[in-house]
Specification:
homodimer, 12 helices, alpha/beta, globular, 6-phosphogluconate dehydrogenase C-terminal fold, six-stranded parallel beta sheet
């Protein structure tokens, strides 16, 4: 089993990148697309993000054997309802959302009787919208597939193969475990970045101009993440609340320990933490999950 | 007044980059260097980080009219004492440390009667050691000069001109204000990054292997900063304690507010914060303090 017609609902960074990646790696697969925003549809047509861009969601999925919802996780249920009238009974319904337990529930509720296999390609940039996507986004990235209990094995295998063909390595896990893993590798980092950028822009003792000028000391790295799509991230925190709060508690405990170390001048505690964190970086670079060049290669850019 | 012989004490990322930048931009200026580690001196000779590498600190500064201490801020006093026997009475003594109030005190104590003008080029990468430096590190970066009260104006002007010639823009401020500004633009970001990377590597519910695999969701950005030199950063937190604790309190207040918003499902509070942080990113990119390419240009690298 393999897919011959992929419908993409939502044509932002992820949806657009899927369309372009299919065109590059699976040229025989037909793509159709839809976005609720007419301006995005217009731009998607200009960039060719899908073979056909429909003006109606049900129309976009007609005849598709794989439908991928690429909308913020809070908009999944509504998007699923909107495509329902055009859905083929045999179609596999998937998505790219960053929280999986809530998405599994929303889709099961909106599309009873359909084959639903949620997934999450762990890939992205800080940019969003129909101009942000590019074909190589999923290369060398992981895609986590979270099939519900009793999911048909051949459908899961076909979805996994689809992502492999776009350049990803696939891992299967439960939605609950996915949500815990992503809370630490993605959601908490975003929460911290948004928060410190907010803190820095509202200080009394340091002006915003100074924060911008001297951002190369480390702060600028956080601003990249804090430039990510606001609605998408609001929805993540509304939909993965328990795991995020759990991980946030662990982080706050550790930060309190560091505060105590600074207050007491405990250099040994600092040195211990600051020395062990290098090993993780090394593994991430060795496993191809980040650029080995210093400063992410910024200096290679003149 | 301009300098004709620059002595560099400490030949890691910053010291090595100064040597290479002088060679490129000020080829008529003589450079000498020293590092307390014989292996670093050996490597510095191979890379030509300074015209001459001396095996004795006092020897390295003999005849120099500008001496730049490029050692961790906790090692400044000892390094200053070690060069004292060779110092010219007219020489300007400067440094590149990330905390300025403590450095001003250490240097004044170790070198009474000398002209001391501390400075801080806000530039760096996560790498360290004699192989890390490169000539363009200071291009388009700010260098903050923090002269003590009553400092000779021509010496301050000469130091400012030196940094401009290496490609930097110079700003003069008090050591106290510098320490407050850098606490938010550099020290707190490093503290947070070290802490979350530590938290993530010691979880019960998520393995270290999973954290590494799925790091592209945002976490990997923090690991870059958390790979910075451990001793240098321990010294920063030991030497800029008050400002760091002050800024950390502001951050913790804001993080607590976000925790409350997540717990209560207050999407509006999230949306407000997540929307305003984009503007800061835009300004940083517009002012040439970061790369405009998505994902720091990582995807341009194959």
């Amino acid at each position: 089993m393999s897919f011959s017609h992929v419908a993409i609902i939502g044509l932002g960074l992820l949806g657009g990148s899927i369309g372009l990646a299919v065109e590059e790696h699976l040229p025989d697969v037909k793509t159709t697309g839809y976005d609720a925003d007419p301006k995005v549809r217009e731009r998607a047509r200009q960039r060719g993000l899908a073979g056909t861009i429909a003006d109606d969601p049900a129309e976009a999925v007609r005849g598709a054997d794989l439908v991928i919802l690429c909308v913020p996780v809070g908009a999944m249920e509504e998007a699923a309802k909107a495509i329902a009238p055009g859905l083929d009974r045999q179609a596999v319904i998937s998505d790219v959302g960053s929280s999986k337990e809530s998405v599994a529930k929303s889709l099961a509720k909106a599309l009873p009787g359909h084959t639903i296999i949620p997934a999450h390609p762990v890939a992205g940039t800080e940019q969003s919208g129909p101009d942000a996507g590019f074909a190589s986004l999923f290369q060398q990235r992981w895609c986590i597939v979270t099939p519900p209990k009793g999911a048909q094995e051949d459908s899961v295998a076909a979805l996994a193969r689809f992502w492999q063909q776009l350049g990803s390595t696939v891992e299967v896990m439960t939605p609950e475990h996915h949500d815990m893993v992503l809370a630490v590798t993605s959601h908490i980092p975003h929460l911290i970045a948004y928060t410190i950028v907010g803190t820095a822009s509202d200080l009394e003792k340091v002006t915003r101009g100074e924060v911008i000028k001297y951002s190369a000391g480390g702060f600028r790295d956080f601003t990249r993440i804090a430039a990510s799509d606001a609605v998408m991230w609001r929805d993540v925190f509304l939909n993965n609340r328990e795991a995020v709060l759990d991980m946030l508690d662990s982080f706050l405990d550790d930060l309190e320990a560091m505060r105590r170390a600074i207050r007491k001048g405990n250099g040994e505690a600092m040195l211990e933490l600051f020395s062990k964190t290098r090993a993780i970086r090394r593994s991430i670079v060795e496993q191809g999950q980040d650029d080995a060049r210093p400063d992410f290669g910024r200096h290679d850019h003149g």
